[in-house]
Every structure is written in C-alpha cells, then in structure tokens.
Amino acid sequence: MKRLKQSIALVLVLILAISLAACGAKPEAKPADNGSNASAGGSSLENKKIALIMQINLGTFSAQYIEGVKEQVEKLGGKVTVFTADGDLAKMSSHLDAAINQKFDGILIDHGTAEALDQGVQKALDKKIPVVAFDADIQKPGITVLEQGDQKMAEVTLDKMSKDIGGKGNIVKIWVAGFAPMERRQVAYKEFMDKNKDIKEIAAFGAASQNTALDTQSQMEAILKKYPNKGDITAVWAAWDEFAKGASRAIQQAGRTEIKVYGIDMSDEDLQMIQDTKSPWVASAAVDPKDIGRIQVRYLYQKLHGDQTPDKIVLDPVFVSRDQLPSSQISTAQLSEHVKGWGNSQQGYTDWLKQAEKQPAAK
C-alpha cells in the first residue's frame, strides 16, 4: 500500500511539472506592430503634440506650407500648434524655449538663424525632443534640415530671363540678406552676373516685413519714376514671391508691361498672377509649399519612430512659366496636370508611415 501511495504521488508530481512547463512555453499574444502604434521606445505615435515655430508667417506661400504641415500631422493622429515670431529672432528663440518647456513631442522650425536657435535646439535634443527644420541656418548633429534647392531655383529663373531678353539689358534685383535660402540664391545670382557681362544691375533693394509685397510695390514705383523710359529697365529678378507680387503690381499699374518679372516660390495667388496675361510676372521656380510641410512632418515622425534620418534634405524645385499653363485659371492643386514634377512628392514617405495614416487616433 505504501508503494502504491508513493507511485500515485510521483505520477501527480510528473503531471503537475508537465502542466507548468506547457503553460510557461505558451507565447503571449501581441498585436502586430506595423509601425503606427509604437516608436523604438515602445510609446504610441498617435496623439503627438507638434510645435511649428516660424520666423515669419506671411502670404499665401506660408499659409499653404502650414496647411501641408497640419494635413500630414493630422493624418498621423497628431495636433499642430503654430508659433509665429513676426520676423523677430529673439521672439522665435523664446517660442522655441516655450515649446520645450511645454513638453511638445516634436518641433518643426521654419527659417531662423543658428545664432538665435542653436542653444534652444540643443536644449530640445538634450530632452530627447526631435527637431526638423526648413530653410534654417542651423548645422547641428541630431537635427534634419530641409532646403529647396535654392541655387537651382535661382539658376533656372535667371537663365530664362537671359534667354527672353536676348542676353543683354538693365535689370532690377529684389533680394534681402539674413535668410539662409536668400543667401544661397545670391550665390547663384553672383555667378550668373559674372558670366553675363551684357546684363547690368541698375538697382537692388528688398526688405522682409509684415507688408513685404506692399512695401516692395512702393519701392518699385519709385524706381519706375527714376527710370521712366521704355528700355530703361528690361526685367526684374525677384528672389521671393512676396517681392515678385509687389514689383508686378507696380509695373502693371504704371503701364510698363514691357518689363518682365522672374520670381521664386509658388502659391495659388502667385499662379493666378502668372496666368494673367496682363501681369508682368511670367515665370517662377518653386517647390510645392504644401509638399514642403508634408515632407518636413514625415522626417519628424521618422525620428519619433526611432529611424535614422539624413542631416540635410534637398527638395527638387520645379520651373513654371506662363507658356506651360492653360488659358483657364487653375490652382496649385491642378498644376501637376500641366507641369511635370509638381506636387505629390514621395520624399520621406516610408511604408510604415503610409500604414500609420490608415490608423488615426480614436476620437
């Protein structure tokens, strides 16, 4: 009897051991991770608070850029707060500090200088807040900076101008220092002028303000009075669309339609002016402002996801001239039907980001 009891006890111990082993070997069920729900640290990528810190928010280009930023963030279940410095770099630096102190999950920067922003950017990086900048003069390990291919934009518009005026004539340059994209455009302008000795710069001006287009218009009106005769001015090269708007309005109102304007950047308002056969603005080079915003957000979310991103991203510009466009008015949303390469850029668009867009945060 004693042996029987011992045998039964042994069998029960073996059964219990086998059961425990089986339970321990059973894997825990986990939801599939397609990249939309977890970053490298395991936290959700939904409901992120994103700060967009802008040196200046001016005109339809900025408005469409902000639209692109908000569109892409909202597709990924996040929310954007826009901080505008009105051209004041000290205020921009203060906004950056505020975004860090308010514990935003990611920071986007639009323009600005290293002198004003380096300290704040380093503070953000130290607190593990990812930063992606656009057209900002910042070179700091750990952030990604986007630029538009500014020298290329300047080159193609200047080359078009030279071709249209037969390689000779008097031109007006509208440009302003102190902005990284403007400085790059100036490099191309200087190289162009050095090679084209028969093209003479007879006037140069430009300033960034809250009323840039209106101020430019007033200054261009003064120059037209200084050079009142047909042939005194052959063309105007404007390094920013706000400059091109102001110059074009002054020329058109003065009836000096022999003077043509060549600009940089593109918005719905710009496109409307270029399509107007009465407008002197005939061509521009640009990257879709909405695409800029979308691409910038994609690289920020890559950082949030734990992906490695390049230090520098150059966006490919597109040249747009009036002779490419239909007689009926179109918007930049329709521009891709007429100009190859415009809009719908896939830069920075990873497979997991596309998948993440299909699973927005629960409302």
Automatic annotation (TrEMBL):
Protein name: Sugar ABC transporter substrate-binding protein
Keyword Signal attached: yes
Chief location of this protein within or outside the cell: other
TM spans (from-to): none
InterPro entries membership: Bact_Solute-Bind_Prot2, Peripla_BP_I, SBP_2_dom
Signal peptide: 1-21
A Pfam family it matches: Peripla_BP_4
Location(s) in or outside the cell: Cell envelope
Entry's family note: Belongs to the bacterial solute-binding protein 2 family.
Species, as recorded: Paenibacillus vulneris
All copies of domain Periplasmic binding protein, residue ranges: 50-307
